[in-house]
Amino acid sequence: MTTDNAEVTPARYTKLTLWQRLDTRTLTMVGILLLLWLGFTAFTSGWFTELDGSFLTPRNLSNLMRAMAVVGILGCGMVLVIVTGGIDLSVGTVAGFIGCMAAALQVWYDLNTPTVFFICLIAGVVIGMLEGAVIAYVGVAAFIVTLGGQLVFRGGILFITRGSTIAPLHNSFKFIGNAYFSHLWGWIFAIAAISFLLFSELRKRAARKRYNTLTESSVFMLARWLCYSLVIFIATLVMNDYRGLPVPVFIMLVLMIIFTVIADKTLFGRKIYALGGNLAAARYSGINVKKNLTIVYALNGLLAAVAGLILSARLNASPTQAANMNLELDAIAAAVIGGTSMTGGVGKVMGAILGALIMATIDNGMSIMNLMPAWQFLVKGLILVAAVWFDMRTSRKKAAA
After folding, report:
1. Contact at 8 Å (CB) between 320 and 164?
2. What is the pLDDT of residues 255-283, one digit of tens each?
3. Whole-prediction pTM value?
């Protein structure tokens, strides 16, 4: 009798787990993205009669990916901040400030590109650390601290640039914003990514088997890996059909992988989720709340600096108007649309990339259709509200269960 139960129970448990493992939030967002792509392609191609010049062309998709890189990078840092239960309203202005500082250092002080990058990245970390320290150690609300930071760095942009554009930048600087990797390097990166995914899946499976926590069949694992591999293959094919993999997109993907590992695979990452899940419990469990909050905002400042450098490189000038670009709101929206809960404790870095892609799709598609910018804000606002509603509905169901 015991043997029969041992044979039957795992099968039932695995079947139930496979159903529970389906991420309905992610699947919904992917479905929305595909519907947007099909809809914009239909409207811009005469209902699929003339695809040249439509939304779904390699050139437009490449430009779409380049356009989302800055918001995607900011979104990666915003996920960590929101997961702790905080918010950062200054990150877009900080990115603009760092971009203007970089342009000034290179054009006015004739510093070489590596030196400019180093100074700006350190400045981003210091800015994030200062904001985080005020929030964590002084106890001022994150909303107030970062709102004040937004105003301070708006003034900083005007102070540096005096309202004028600083240009042009060196070719080595512009590389991170406008260059493309060759087709060969694109395929090398794709093969490396697919191989890394397979290695990660096998390693995760071996660990679960070793600790007797394996809850899925090898077929399910291989199916998931094949789906991811197919997406990577198609994306590489499309990018190479135009000019190759854009460098800013490559930087965004590398940062996404790094911060996904930090959030999901490290002790520090587990502490971050603990802070947002239950701050009092995290404190009583021995987590240094103040230190970890400061580190989170420092990392967020680092990503803001990277985004600012890419923005400057793409413009080949100082992003003087960055204060009016609402980058921080786009980053928050990307994180929330991608599944990050505003109540803290829940969120994935990869989800912010998906959210940024949805928002960039709306901007790009409506621009091709020559619709008024008002429609872009309207649709993005509705999707954001729907994403928050979906999060609240899902949380209530889990609580009821």
Report:
1. yes
2. 999 999 999 889 999 999 998 878 778 88
3. 0.90
